[in-house]
EGF-like domain-containing protein (Amphiprion ocellaris), 317 residues
Amino acid sequence: MLPTGLELLRLLRLLSCVTLVLLFQVSDAKRDLISACTTCQKITDNFSKGFERTAKQNFGGGNTAWEERKLSKYETSEIRLMEIVEDLCESSSFECNRMVEEHEEHFETWWFKRKTKHPDLHKWFCIETIKVCCPKGTFGLDCNDCVGGSETPCHGNGRCDGDGTRGGDGKCSCDNGYTGEFCLDCREGYYNEVRNDTFSLCTECHSSCKTCTGGTHQDCDECKDGWEEDDQEACVDVNECSKDPSSCNEDQYCLNTEGSYSCKACDKVCSGCTAAGPDKCQSCASGYQDTEGTCTVMDINFKCQVSILCRVGLHHL
Ligand SMILES: [Ca+2]
């Protein structure tokens, strides 16, 4: 008797699998539990895509009369299953192809016997049958609840390690602004807007606060660098530019900003300045003269008054 398409497919898979196993010799290697679940999730996602893709198909051309007789309805046929299973993995994905090969009979069982009662393939296959995943909000070999409970892992403020897989340790990596084992505490620079045993909302402090109890510059416990407390105990900007000596070099002027300051280059006509532009010089640079408060290019006759060149008449050149 001739082998069916599915049997041929199996044989090919087996051959490629044996080759790969020989190549890598990983038959008994302990698999990364989290990546096994990721692989399984990918397989069941691709199964759903394949299911949709084949939804409007039928046997079409190329099927033998034997197949037509044996498989009366494409929708629930082995042919359709085969077409879906063929595209579950990228050919280069060793883990995926191995998992499909190893558990191919489960797809048949589900397809012919379990699909109606257990329509969620991921749940039936990855969680309950081959046990590489856990329900959402649980982790580890026994699918224990994540910190904070399976409904709201990490109280909704973080990510539970191994969530939904048979791996991980269930500990929380808190989102930005949150800290602590349960992700209920606020990080420095954040304050609790709402807080109870199971819920916490941390909001960023005002930009002037290092730590705070509320959202304004008057709610700071401590001011950030570049800010100082005023008479009303609010954090206000330090004007670094009013300091003597200046915080900047001689050929720069100081520009005060909220929480900081910067040093900017003076105009090239200036020798020292208070702001940008040729009219903000403290004195004019060499070769420039003060003309009604603005430094301009010195005219040649004026230049001669201060130059030894005048005496030898070189300015006429
Ligand atoms: Ca400042």
